[in-house]
Amino acid sequence: MTTKDLHFYEPKNGHGLKHDPFNAIIAPRPIGWISSRDGSGNVNLAPYSFFNAFCYVPPIIGFSSTNWKDSAGNIQDTGEFVWNLATMDLAKQMNATAAHVARDVDEFKIAGLTAAPCKLVNVPRVAESPVAFECKLTQILQLQGKDGEKAQAWVTFGEVVAVHIDKAFIKDGVYQTGLAHPIVRAGRKGDYFEIKPENMFEMIRPD
């Protein structure tokens, strides 16, 4: 085995590079494009770069926000949210919803998106998105370090109670991930890439 010339660092002492490599290494990361509504009825739509699925039964997804954001506050108040799939043809609109605006400003309008009603939650989904998950809050956890000190980051978990899928992306009963051309976060802020069907491959598990 060839010995590698490794860059080693302990995060507590800094990384010693031009950009923090943590986000670039944990890639790709699905985009948590989260719509929510506060107790007064104001709608919020925002993308989160720390997002994923965590459980099959019940189906649970979650996103993490650095500092306490409107999304987490809204979901804590109402117990509901929607995840919307960000795709290549919605990239600019998704990016527009990342703007820091007042709580009563509707990001759907800023991005020129259509707020479509959901079935089981009182939160709109992005009508232009091919997939949406209606979710009910299960937990909001403040993260902490190994020393027990609280971090300024909160993970919001929700159970998926309803799913909307554009039938154009279902072939022979199977949802085709690549056909939707989802976009994912790469490394530095602003870096994204597109998942294309031709870049996907299959491997059979040993068991």
From TrEMBL:
<protein>
    <submittedName>
        <fullName>Asp/Glu/hydantoin racemase</fullName>
    </submittedName>
</protein>
<dbReference type="InterPro" id="IPR002563">
    <property type="entry name" value="Flavin_Rdtase-like_dom"/>
</dbReference>
<dbReference type="InterPro" id="IPR012349">
    <property type="entry name" value="Split_barrel_FMN-bd"/>
</dbReference>
<dbReference type="Pfam" id="PF01613">
    <property type="entry name" value="Flavin_Reduct"/>
</dbReference>
<dbReference type="GO" id="GO:0016646">
    <property type="term" value="F:oxidoreductase activity, acting on the CH-NH group of donors, NAD or NADP as acceptor"/>
</dbReference>
<dbReference type="GO" id="GO:0010181">
    <property type="term" value="F:FMN binding"/>
</dbReference>
<feature type="domain" description="Flavin reductase like">
    <location>
        <begin position="24"/>
        <end position="177"/>
    </location>
</feature>
